[in-house]
């Protein structure tokens, strides 16, 4: 990294969630192999502590994503990153769900379109206020556009196709949970690693099932 390049961070406990979710998907040996490949062996057996200190660097998050693709191939890595994202939501909901109001009965009783709007705004706020990640939401009748304008997943990466699969998995699981078990089409259509100005994840507001 250039000396002048800015450094951005997630809070430690979000870094911890990513590694715990990876461990659930890849197994302990898989995570250790990926951390070695990512030149981050110090995290093996020493995940970031469970606190809100903003100290888990974006560069480490993207190195891990890159290493998953190196270890399992682009296609295999994509599937594993999606699964990791889904598992991250499960851990994250335990940590952050109450603070976001997502577990309140009043929220659960809202009609689906309102839940999607309120839920996506609360979720974007979690990143915008609690981390150095920046998310801008845009919505029309049919789609929600989740624009990650400063993205840890592809930080300083260059790829031929969008590569922030963990975010897509995370949003898929969030939608599944918010809607009480419905599946939504979620696709990353633009990515900073491919030269776009943001990593854009498009969510079809009409569920598949
Ligand atoms: Zn990205």
Structural class: alpha+beta
Give the SSE string: EHEHHHEEHEE
Low-pLDDT sequence parts: none
Q: Which ions and ligands are bound to the chains?
A: zinc ion
Strand content: 15-25%
Distance between the termini: 45 Å
Shape: globular
Helical coverage, percent range: 40-55%
Number of strands: 6
What strand line-up does the widest sheet have?
A: 3-4-6-5
| Tally of helical segments | 5
Biggest sheet record: 4 strands, antiparallel
Mean pLDDT, as a whole number? 95
Instruction: Please compute the radius of gyration using only Cα atoms.
Output: 16 Å
Explain the overall architecture.
The relative contact order is 0.14. By secondary structure, this protein is an alpha+beta fold. 51% of the residues lie in helices and 15% in strands. The chain is globular and about 45 Å long. Helix 1 runs antiparallel to helix 2. A hairpin with an 8-residue loop joins strand 5 and strand 6. It contains 5 helices and 6 strands. The strands form 2 sheets. It has a 4-stranded antiparallel beta sheet with strand order 3-4-6-5, covered by helices on one side. A two-stranded antiparallel ribbon has the order 1-2.
